[in-house]
Design brief:
This protein is α/β, with parallel strands linked by helices and 500 residues long. The chain folds into 2 domains: 164 residues, Leucine Aminopeptidase, subunit E, domain 1; 314 residues, Aminopeptidase. Helix content is 37%, strand content 20%. The strands form 4 sheets. Strands 7, 8, 9, 10, 11, 14, 15, 16 and 18 form a 9-stranded mixed sheet that branches. A 6-stranded mixed sheet has the order 1-6-5-2-4-3, covered by helices on one side. It has a 3-stranded mixed sheet with strand order 12-13-17. A hairpin with an 8-residue loop joins strand 3 and strand 4. The two termini are 31 Å apart. The relative contact order is 0.11. The model has no long low-confidence stretch (mean pLDDT 95).
Length: 500
């Protein structure tokens, strides 16, 4: 999909679809007023008849509109004074409607809408991301051809965003470029997440990282089980024992700044399929446990976006990847293992495995002397109970880091919420036989899981993102969401600006 910026005459634009805003109230945006005049009152007549009323997210497609050259006119309600979240949801609804029209080209005039908290560049980026997200389809494994496949396929190839002012053109073009990079990162994360466990194995993830390294000039290192054993990664390897698929530790490095500059490090949980091990999961919806590697998919998507934006920052990604299966060689409840840090762990529940692979990956990452380290994981069902499928949970040992992540989440409209930590939760991890247990003794499971990881990050500025509720959707819209690639990309983008 090609996205460009232009100040063309919307009345003469020969395009398959012209997308314009309709505000609540009497004062319409400039482009809308221009079309209203050329069409001899078409838009006002539609408002009076109740076909469109300007409410945020309301849409109306008008075929063969009079007075303009466009084949279709898509009217989009934007409310009165939208904020970033309003505008994000509105543009996504509009983009989905656009993708359903069978249009190949479109001119979009939503850039002229004033949005609280979003400048012209941010608006251009949000619109561009929304259109690319709406156009995403995962059909690589389908062989069916015909009308149904064609109907589902998004045909939009060329998008022209209307320039609202020449003084904003530079910022808007930058916003479009950022959007394309972030959208590619989101699409990559979705693709990896949507693949089934028989294809997306730990070794497959490692090979995909190598391909990305070749195409985006990233340094790639992959550790096999022998190397991990030599490093003392007993916690990680205890999870992979039940599977014939060997574990991998994947390290990816983007060097955009001086080699001496401390990197930001992202660690992503890469359980490519989670059956729960001996603590076997229920059969219902177990197929969705292919999404237990969405933390890994997210951080790989984020470094893809950062590399495409060529950000002047050093970013390292670490992915511990393995399967969690039951077998005669699998770890048993009650087993005690030694982590890379030297701390011992009593494994009371083999289905609390994500923290076991993450703790060794976090210890490994300490060698990079990171400025910040952020782990991303589909870690706990308790997080879904607390926040539902709306917000990603943020837990951190550093207030500045958690605030920076929240700011990035707000600007990217990739919603998050800060959760507490503390000794009263950490104390639940006590074990009579080891330095700690891998589960808590009571409620607050998302917090005790974070406290577990916090025991391995005491020397680093660290944050934990629990994406169990936001990484994928179930039901009719089943599939990976690519979240929180937008939040992480915005966070790293902001950090790179502080470096320059």
């Amino acid at each position: 999909m090609k996205i460009q910026l232009s100040s063309l005459d919307v009345l003469r634009a020969r395009t398959d679809c012209l997308v314009v805003a309709v505000r609540e109230g009497t004062q319409q945006p400039p482009t809308t007023r221009k079309i209203e005049k050329a069409s001899k009152g078409l838009i006002q007549s539609l408002i009076h008849s109740g076909d469109i009323d300007g409410r945020p997210g309301s849409v109306l497609l008008v075929p063969s509109p009079m007075g303009i050259q466009a084949k279709r006119l898509l009217l989009v309600g934007v409310g009165d004074k939208p904020d970033i979240d309003d505008f994000a949801s509105t543009t996504l609804v509009a983009a989905r409607q656009l993708c359903s029209t069978r249009s190949v080209s479109a001119v979009v005039a939503l850039t002229e809408i004033a949005v609280t908290g979003a400048d012209a560049g941010t608006r251009a980026r949000m619109i561009s991301q929304a259109i690319q997200e709406a156009g995403y389809r995962f059909s690589e494994l389908k062989t069916t051809k015909g009308k149904e496949t064609a109907r589902r396929h998004c045909t939009v190839k060329r998008i022209t965003l209307l320039s609202d002012s020449t003084k904003n053109d530079s910022a808007m073009r930058a916003g479009i470029q950022e959007a394309c990079a972030i959208a590619n990162g989101v699409a990559l994360a979705k693709d990896l997440g949507n693949l089934p466990g028989n294809i997306c194995t730990p070794n497959y993830l490692a090979n995909q990282a190598k391909k990305l390294g070749n195409s985006h000039k990233l340094k790639i290192k992959v550790l096999d089980e022998a190397k991990m054993k030599a490093l003392g990664m007993g916690a990680l390897l205890s999870v992979s024992r039940g599977s014939r698929e060997p574990a991998r530790l994947i390290v990816m490095e983007h060097q955009g700044a001086r080699r001496s500059d401390a990197p930001v490090v992202l660690v992503g949980k890469g359980i490519t399929f989670d059956a729960g091990g001996i603590s076997l999961k229920p059969a219902a919806a177990m197929d969705e446990m292919k999404y237990d590697m969405c933390g890994a998919a997210t951080v790989i998507g984020a470094i893809c976006a950062v590399a495409e934006m060529k950000l002047p920052i050093n970013l390292n990604v670490v992915v511990p990847a393995c399967e969690n299966r039951p077998s005669s060689s699998a770890t048993l409840p009650g087993d005690i293992v030694k982590s890379m840090s030297g701390q011992t762990i009593e494994i009371l529940n083999t289905d609390a495995e994500g923290r076991l692979i993450l703790c060794d990956a976090l210890t490994y990452s300490e060698r990079f002397n990171p400025k910040f380290i952020v782990d991303v994981a589909t870690l706990t069902g308790a997080c879904v109970v607390a926040l539902g499928h709306i917000r990603t949970a943020i837990m951190s040992n550093n207030e500045d880091l958690s605030n920076n992540l929240m700011d990035a989440a707000d600007k990217a409209s990739d919603k998050a919420w800060k959760m507490p930590m503390g000794s009263e939760y950490d104390n639940q991890l006590k074990s009579n036989f080891a330095d700690m247990a891998n589960i808590g003794s009571g409620y607050g499971g998302s917090i005790t899981a974070a406290c577990f990881l916090g025991r391995f990050t005491k020397n680093m500025k660290w944050a934990h993102l629990d994406i169990a509720g936001t990484a994928w959707k179930s039901g009719a819209q089943k599939g990976s969401t690519g979240r929180p690639v937008p939040m992480l990309s915005e966070f790293i983008l902001n950090q790179s600006k502080k470096n320059s």
